[in-house]
Design brief:
This protein has about 250 residues and is an alpha/beta fold. It has ten helices and ten strands.
Length: about 250
């Protein structure tokens, strides 16, 4: 069956575009994805390997959104580039019936740069929910309608280790490796209690995966186990990764 046949049938029947979604199969960084969209926004995505076939994805999408998803050969503009670069800031998302607090958490997840990790506490703060518990923040992360596209694999605990973000651990590992996250390095930092890295030349401290932290040479790297320890030593927080409010 031609990919857009069902859509052409709906159009000839006079059914408005707003009554259904479209979906395309797109190559992701480490796996192919079904990506559904409608009214100019992503309405869902998931690894192809999670489903027995397109029909199963369509059924799951209908159950979650209440709208049919019809196959198309044309993905939403911007999706292919977002998957290639790991930056999706040009995309819009339709979060459906998710509460506002959960939407804000997912928007904070989108702000985590490619190849970097942020702890759960950072997400709550960036989402403007400083009183939210770790369980509440993680529940919002796992409720993402578009995992992989929304980079929930970039969420970790305070040491950078993976948390239950709603993706299988092996997929999280593959996504992180693809983005250049050095898990062995993070494990070493975790073992010796390092939570932040400072530079004795700039007197700034960052999260270990911050782009600025990765540029600090061994000679100038200063490890810290807490924000207080860094501040007592005269270091100020990075304005890029924002380990504290700056």
């Amino acid at each position: 069956m031609p990919a857009d046949l069902a859509i052409r049938i709906m159009q000839r029947a006079g059914v408005a575009d707003r009554e259904y979604d479209r979906y395309a199969t797109v190559d992701g960084p480490v796996t192919r994805l079904f990506v559904a969209y409608g009214r100019g926004a992503v309405t869902g995505s998931a690894p192809v390997e999670w489903y027995a076939g397109p029909d199963a994805f369509e059924e799951a999408h209908l159950h979650r959104t209440g709208r049919s998803a019809l196959p198309t050969a044309k993905p939403l503009p911007g999706v292919v580039g977002a998957l290639r670069t790991g930056r999706d800031r040009t995309l819009r998302y339709d979060y459906g019936g998710l509460p506002e607090a959960q939407r804000r958490v997912l928007e904070a997840v989108r702000a985590i740069p490619r190849g970097q990790l942020r702890p759960v506490g950072w997400l709550g703060r960036e989402a403007g929910l400083p009183e939210a518990t770790a369980a509440e923040v993680l529940a919002a992360v796992r409720a993402s309608p578009a995992p992989v596209l929304i980079p929930v694999h970039r969420v970790g605990d305070e040491t950078g280790r993976p948390v239950d973000c709603g993706l299988p651990p092996d997929l999280v590992g593959r996504l992180r490796a693809h983005e250049g996250v050095d898990e062995d390095r993070l494990t070493r930092f975790s073992a010796d209690g390092t939570r932040y890295l400072g530079s004795d030349t700039t007197r700034i401290f960052c999260y270990p995966t911050c782009a600025h932290a990765r540029r600090i040479t061994d000679r100038h790297r200063v490890p810290f186990g807490s924000v207080d320890a860094a501040r007592v030593a005269g270091y100020r927080p990075c304005r890029s990764c924002r380990p504290v409010v700056v």
